């Protein structure tokens, strides 16, 4: 007996999404990060939503006039029902306030249809009756894995929600848009003196070899700007899970080793300091997203939505090489990284906020007599150097000289640089380059200013 059941769909929900957008175009911020045109079952609705996304990506208003013009430009206006259909969509929409609810209905049914397709493909694998059982099972698992990976796995979350897992904190007050800062300070006096703070619309690259402290420096900057200057920070962590990242922030703020905190080995005095640090960080306007393998389009959508709701002062990405581009077939990794760096610069201008991206360096650093990094060491793409307004390198002699004996043998006239780190300003589009020294507290993964050391020009 043939299965004549129709795939699950809801034309009313699809029309409610489109009608909501025509009533209030700003609703796109609530659904653009998870809903795609292909999630709509009816083809004219796909064309309509795809046109709305195009207007959104060009930062143009979404309304009946602009959507009609976009559809006409594509030659799809009459196929979608003409201007009369757009008026109809507005008239049948109950309210634009529930667009997120409508969008989730459309998305859920789309996933169900994809599940049906995946089931048919898995059935076909079974009918093939291949000689290798493990290979057949792997192909079937891969189909489901691809379906799950297509779903949005996270969103920007206030740091308070993560801290709630560790200690009780005071009830949250409603976030309000505040007056935007003219620039964002890093909290390190020497660096801020050189740069005049991170300027709005700048792309800042923080680069170094593994274990140099790139993530720690980025987190310290996020903490300093958010806690001391009330800057709103969007932090995209592609490498570390949200809980691990917040635990590191909590360790740095409290001065208690994260290992002792993780295993509950802290003393009564340390617990008091952790509680105090939790109170400080819970008030910081830091929003964390730990979605792995994040696509550029998803990150942009999430950042734009937070900027619309709250007003972003700085975006931090850890780290650039883990991001995904558009996934164009035949595109190599260098081209993909070039696309990502250009997109990050465009995002900085679109948000009018500094975007700070952590980046890896190539192994070429290890092969030189002097291990200090150079701009040519930026990994996988020369376009990072070209697109960035500021490039900061982290360098620690301790990384290469593990003991005082090794250091003295190579540098008999210099004191061992214990806990010293150089932040090298290798590129500064609008000012001087130079070098500043910071103290790096290994057990806390925390950078601190060295007030007695003057910055040096390069």
Distance between the terminal alpha carbons, to the nearest Å? 79 Å
Query: Unreliable runs, pLDDT <50, ≥5 residues?
Result: 168-177
In the CATH scheme, the class of the largest domain would be Alpha Beta
Query: What spatial form do the alpha-carbon principal axes imply?
Result: globular
CATH H level of the largest domain: which superfamily? P-loop containing nucleotide triphosphate hydrolases
Contiguous helical run count: 19
CATH architectural designation of the largest domain: 3-Layer(aba) Sandwich
**Into which percent range does the helicity of residues fall?**
40-55%
Kindly identify the CATH topology of the largest domain.
Rossmann fold
Largest sheet: 11 strands, mixed
User: What integer value in Å does the Rg equal?
Assistant: 26 Å
The computed structural class is alpha/beta
Total tally of structural domains:
2
Write up this protein.
By secondary structure, this protein is an alpha/beta fold. The chain folds into 2 domains: 1-149, DNAb Helicase, Chain A; 157-457, 3-Layer(aba) Sandwich (Rossmann fold). It is built from 19 helices and 13 strands. The strands form 2 sheets. Strands 1, 4, 5, 6, 7, 8, 9, 10, 11, 12 and 13 form an 11-stranded mixed sheet that branches. A hairpin with a 5-residue loop joins strand 10 (420-428) and strand 11 (434-441). Helix 1 crosses helix 5 and helix 1 crosses helix 6 (99-128).
């Amino acid at each position: 007996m043939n299965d004549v059941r129709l795939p699950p769909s809801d034309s009313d929900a699809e029309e409610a999404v489109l009608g909501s957008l025509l009533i209030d175009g700003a609703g796109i911020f609530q659904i653009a990060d998870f809903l795609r045109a292909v999630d709509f079952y009816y083809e004219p609705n796909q064309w309509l939503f795809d046109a709305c996304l195009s207007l959104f990506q060009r930062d143009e208003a979404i309304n009946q006039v602009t959507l009609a013009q976009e559809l006409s430009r594509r030659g799809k206006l009459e196929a979608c029902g003409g201007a009369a259909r757009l008026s109809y969509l507005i008239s049948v929409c109950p309210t634009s306030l529930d667009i997120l609810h409508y969008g989730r209905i459309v998305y859920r049914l789309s996933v169900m249809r994809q599940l049906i397709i995946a089931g048919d493909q898995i059935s076909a694998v079974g009918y093939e009756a291949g000689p290798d059982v493990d290979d057949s099972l792997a192909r079937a698992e891969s189909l489901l894995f691809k379906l799950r990976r297509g779903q949005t796995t996270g969103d920007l979350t206030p740091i308070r929600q993560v801290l709630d897992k560790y200690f009780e904190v005071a009830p949250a007050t409603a976030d309000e848009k505040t007056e935007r800062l003219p620039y964002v300070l890093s909290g390190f006096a020497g660096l801020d003196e050189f740069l005049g703070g991170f300027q709005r619309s700048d792309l800042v690259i923080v680069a170094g070899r593994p274990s140099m402290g790139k993530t720690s420096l980025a987190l310290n900057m996020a903490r300093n700007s958010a806690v001391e200057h009330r800057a709103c920070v969007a932090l995209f962590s592609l490498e570390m899970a949200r809980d691990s990242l917040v635990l590191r922030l909590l360790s740095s703020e409290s001065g208690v080793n994260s290992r002792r905190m993780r295993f509950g080995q802290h003393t009564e005095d340390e617990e008091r300091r952790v509680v105090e640090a939790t109170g400080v960080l819970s008030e910081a306007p830091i929003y964390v997203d730990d979605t792995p393998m994040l696509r550029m389009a998803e990150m942009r959508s999430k950042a734009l939505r937070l900027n619309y709701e709250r007003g972003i002062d700085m975006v931090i990405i850890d780290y650039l090489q883990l991001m995904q581009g558009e996934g164009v077939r035949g595109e190599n990794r260098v081209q993909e990284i070039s696309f990502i760096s250009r997109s990050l610069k465009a995002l900085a201008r679109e948000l009018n906020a500094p975007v700070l991206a952590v980046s890896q360096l190539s192994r070429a650093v290890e092969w030189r007599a002097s291990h200090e990094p150079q701009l040519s060491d930026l990994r996988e793409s020369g376009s990072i150097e070209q697109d960035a307004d500021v490039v900061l390198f982290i360098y620690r002699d301790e990384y290469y000289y593990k003991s005082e004996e090794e250091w003295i043998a190579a540098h008999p006239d210099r004191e061992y640089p214990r806990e010293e780190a150089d932040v090298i300003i290798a590129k500064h589009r609008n000012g001087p380059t130079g070098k500043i020294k910071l103290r790096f507290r290994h057990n806390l993964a925390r950078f601190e200013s060295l007030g007695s050391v003057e910055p040096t020009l390069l």
